[in-house]
Amino acid sequence: MKQIVATQGNSYQLLDLLGEGGSGKTYRAVDDRSQTEVAIKVLSLRGMRDWKTLELFEREAKVLAQLNHPAIPHYLDAFQTEIAGEDAFCLVQAIAPGRTLTDWVESGHVFSEEDLRDIATQILEILIYLQTFTPPIIHRDLKPQNLLWSESGEIYLVDFGAVRDTYHLTITGGSTIVGTYGYMAPEQFRGQAVLATDLYGLGTTLLYLKSGQDPADLPVKLMKIDFRHRVKTSPDFANWLERLLEPIPEDRYRNAAQALDALNGRIAAKVDRPKQPIAQISHHGDTMKIVIPPMWLATRSSRKTFLTATLLLSLSLAGWWLMSAAVLPSMLWLPLLLFGIVVTPWMMRVLWHFGNVVICQHEIEIVARQAICQTKLGGIAISSLTIELEDIQNIHCQTTGRLSFQGGIQFKTSVQRYYQIEHMQTDGRYYLPLYTFGKYLDLAEQRWLVGEILEQLHYLDPHID
Question: What CA–CA distance (Å, rounded) separates 123 from 129?
Answer without folding.
Answer: 10
